[in-house]
Specification:
There is one protein chain. The longest helix has 20 residues, at about 95-115. The strands form 6 sheets. Strands 5, 8, 18, 19, 20, 21, 22, 23 and 24 form a 9-stranded antiparallel sheet that branches. This protein is of the alpha+beta class. The protein starts with a strand and ends with a strand. The chain is globular, with a radius of gyration of 25 Å. Helix content is about 25%, strand content about 25%. The chain has 11 helices and 24 strands. It folds into 2 domains: about 1-215, HUPs (Rossmann fold, 3-Layer(aba) Sandwich); about 225-480, no CATH class.
Length: about 475
């Protein structure tokens, strides 16, 4: 069988190629260039040229043919343009997931197939296994043998989340040779084989673009426009109808009478950070001793579609208005204009475009005068306003429920697709490297609703939620 390895110049894909060669496959390597504009990167140079050089040396060391393919046109059309469109609409996309679905396992596979490849392989830390029936035979649906995606053995490097949009057809043509290994084991194999990528650092930033200053990157197409930064006080939530509805609805869904948990509790902050591109959302470590909501599945099934729709809606802060007043200042009593005090919030600064910010973001706000950190809790693209809150425990930073519209629900395990009215228990991940979160999935004609036991912070529309079984298998995903 002829296998094309996507050789990036990193240690993971290098070892993937080496292992396949040792296993007797007819292997060749292909390096794909997906980005040309060095002006967008923080380094301002062509990192891909160095990566290609290393990849070519690795291929020569292993003894496999090496090819180069330029997929920059496809990447711009399918990934970069999608990013710009999502950000301009006030949503926060995940380009890495789109890159895998549209480029690595689609456009790249087509290029490899033209060179005679039967399958493609990557250096992802995840595992593929056949879906077997009770007799040990692989299950076939609509003529397509069915496959499972399992988490990588290394819990610190599992990358199954990035593959949450792959189809069964794509899985049938894919191999993940290092999914059963840990990162230290991969580097040890590379050292023993004297591969030049053995000590190469892992890449960071947007897939194939590199480490970038995201606002600078987005300003290539999205025009900066100054707007207000509004701090939302706790007083706002006391009289907010949506917040009261969420509270009362969650309370009614509890298995036993009590107060619902509505704020994510945290014990420490991970300075390393993580998110859709490793630079936008601060990552905190959940307080595992904090209480979680215990919901009654019977009550979940009885809740109306309308109530589910409202439960999944984020808080709307557009009701916070600011009026001006004229006052006299100084010895000459010069007339000046200022905003009247508002018990719900205040204007604390300015920004250069609401589309450049995402929920949960802390860096880049440049707002002082607060004891605790300031986080983005909402954006209004039409009015160009950013809403922020002070502290990890701010009410606007946490949510319990999200909705995936019907057309965005994607099942990897097609045999497990939920029917309308079904309620199931799964573990869910909403960003890379996040520990799996216990949640209920509720399928309705208006979409899939995910209700988390523990409130989640920084839920930004446009991101992907992936759900897993108790056996470390990723079953499906969707954009919320």
């Amino acid at each position: 069988m002829k296998v094309c390895v996507g050789l990036s110049g990193g240690v993971d894909s290098s070892v993937a190629a080496l292992l396949l060669k040792r296993q007797g496959y007819d292997v060749f390597a292909m390096f794909m260039q997906n980005w040309h504009d060095a002006d967008a990167t923080l380094h301002g140079d062509c990192e891909w040229e160095e990566d290609r050089f290393v990849a070519e040396i690795v291929a020569r060391k292993i003894g496999i043919p090496f090819y180069f393919v330029d997929l920059s046109k496809e990447y711009r059309q399918r990934v970069v343009d999608y990013m710009f469109n999502e950000y301009s609409s006030g949503r926060t996309p995940n380009p890495d997931i789109l890159c895998n679905r549209e480029i690595k396992f689609d456009a790249f596979y087509e290029a490899a197939r033209k060179l005679g490849a039967d399958m493609v392989a990557t250096g992802h830390y995840c595992r593929r296994a056949p879906l077997l029936d009770s007799d040990g035979k692989q299950i076939v649906i609509d003529g397509q043998p069915q496959w499972r995606i399992l988490e990588g053995t290394d819990p610190n490097k599992d990358q199954s989340y990035f593959l949450c949009q792959l189809t069964q057809e794509q899985l049938g043509k894919s191999l993940f040779p290092i999914g059963h290994l840990t990162k230290p084991e991969v580097r040890q194999i590379a050292h023993l084989a004297d591969l030049p990528s053995a000590d190469k650092k892992d890449s960071q930033g947007i897939c194939f673009v590199g480490k970038v200053d995201l606002p600078t990157f987005l300003k290539q197409k999205l025009e900066p426009k100054e707007g207000d930064v509004v701090e939302v006080y706790d007083r706002f939530f006391q009289d907010n109808a949506q917040y009261a509805f969420v509270h009362d609805t969650l309370a009614s869904l509890l298995a036993t009478l009590g107060e619902p948990e509505m704020i994510t509790a945290f014990s420490s902050e991970d300075s390393g950070g993580a998110s859709f591109n490793n630079q936008r959302v601060e990552v905190t470590v959940p307080d595992q001793t904090a209480g979680t909501n215990v919901f009654d599945p019977v009550k979940l099934a009885e809740l109306s579609d309308g109530d589910w729709m409202r439960l999944a809606e984020p808080i709307d802060y557009s009701g916070i208005k600011f009026e001006t007043e004229v006052y006299r200042s100084g010895k000459k009593h010069v007339k000046k204009v200022r905003y009247k005090e508002n018990p719900l919030g205040r204007i604390v600064g300015h920004h250069d475009g609401a589309q450049f910010f995402t929920i949960g973001q802390r860096k880049g706000l440049n707002i002082g005068g607060h004891q605790d950190s300031i986080f983005v809790i909402g954006t209004d693209i039409e009015r160009n306003i950013i809403y922020v809150g002070e502290g990890h425990g701010h009410k606007g930073l946490s949510r319990c429920c999200v909705r995936i519209v019907p057309e965005d629900i994607h099942w990897i395990r097609r045999d497990l697709e939920m029917m309308d009215g079904e309620v199931r228990r799964y573990r869910v991940r909403i960003r890379y490297r996040q520990p799996l979160q216990d949640a209920w999935l509720v399928k309705r004609p208006v979409g899939m609703f995910i209700l988390f036991d523990m409130p989640q912070r920084g839920l930004s529309s446009g991101q992907f939620a992936a759900w897993y079984s108790d056996e470390d298998e990723m079953l499906g995903s969707g954009v919320y």
